[in-house]
Design brief:
By secondary structure, the protein is mainly alpha-helical. The chain is 72% helix and 0% strand. It is built from six helices and no strands.
């Protein structure tokens, strides 16, 4: 036998053996495709969850942060002084708005956000005072009274 025929027979044997062996590249391709589909599905699920959480935070009118039960003395003093300063600023703003007749309270200013309107109405229904609603909503007493009087229709 000639060396060329021996090499040819060995080549044919290897081709036949390769047909019976499993192709590992197909398995790797399938695994990669499954992984990419799983990542895509998880990403979409996370996007949907984030969207629902954002909608709940924006839409829920009774969303309030509950104060902590026990505050250290320093934090309690700081909170009280902050509330006093905020009350003084509000009083000064109210006094300034009463002395300037050219600046109407509800007309001519920026429109009040719908979330604030629903918050004011909810706090009023819960029985909170105008001062408490004013502190929580950062609106003036006149704006709060006009919202309550109109029933939220501005």
């Amino acid at each position: 036998m000639d060396i060329a025929t021996i090499i040819m027979i060995i080549g044919i044997v290897f081709i036949i053996i390769s047909m019976f062996l499993k192709d590992k590249s197909n398995k790797i391709e399938n695994d990669l495709e499954d992984l990419s589909i799983n990542i895509y599905q998880e990403t979409n699920a996370l996007k949907r969850r984030i969207k629902t959480v954002e909608e709940e935070l924006l839409v829920e009118p009774n969303f309030q942060i509950q104060p902590q039960k026990k505050l250290p003395a320093k934090q309690k003093d700081a909170m009280e002084s902050f509330q006093q300063v905020a009350a003084q600023v509000k009083a000064a703003q109210a006094y300034g708005s009463q002395t300037t007749p050219s600046a109407p309270q509800t007309q001519g200013t920026k429109p009040i956000n719908g979330i604030l309107v629903s918050q004011v109405l909810a706090l009023h229904e819960q029985g909170h005072s105008l001062e408490d609603i004013s502190i929580r909503s950062t609106l003036t007493h006149a704006q709060i009274q006009s919202i309550i009087a109109s029933g939220g229709r501005l």
